[in-house]
Amino acid sequence: MMEETFFACKKFAVAGASTNRNKFGNKVFRALLGAKGEEAVIPVHPKEPVVEGVATQPIEKVLAEENAEELGLSIVTPPAVSLDIVQKAIDAGVRNIWLQPGAESQAVLDLAKERGVPVISSGYVSIFTSRLKVY
Fold first, then answer.
1. For the chain, what percent of residues have pLDDT higher than 70?
2. Structural Rg of the chain based on CA atoms
3. Is residue 13 within a helix (H) or strand (E), and if so which, with residue range?
4. Whole-angstrom Cα distance, residue 134 to residue 77?
5. CA-CA distance, 113 to 61, in Å (whole number)?
6. Nearest in space to 135 (alpha carbons), one of 48, 51, 36
7. Contact status, residue 51 vs residue 26, Cβ threshold 8 Å
8. CA distances (Å), 118 to each of 27, 53, 115, 130, 131, in order?
9. Considering the entire predicted model, what is its pTM?
10. pLDDT per residue over 71-112, tens digit each?
11. CB neighbours (10 Å) of residue 57?
12. CB atoms within 10 A of CB 37
């Protein structure tokens, strides 16, 4: 199951992590933070310096510094932004990508398919973290 492969990653980045606790970018970040711990989860946001007490990083830095084979990338951004992030991630060698509902588009899915990278595009990380008992 692709979800289990995703959760087996050693590090996670949440593109679109939000400071607003009512937004899914924050909920997804908190779910992974609770499941994997602060050392394993990186919030990615272009403007916010900190999310839930953890310093954010730009996606380019995450992709340059983390081992792509061990990185799970959760995307909670508008589809146009998601397309750019997925392109950069695939170019960097990331193979564990989860497009949260609303982040996907046909262009994003087509790009991943063309490049031979399977993506998860259904369900929220927070739902699966409780189901897989990774808390």
1. 90
2. 13
3. strand 11-15
4. 24
5. 25
6. 36
7. yes
8. 24, 32, 9, 23, 21
9. 0.90
10. 999 999 999 999 999 999 999 999 999 999 899 999 999 999
11. 18
12. 9
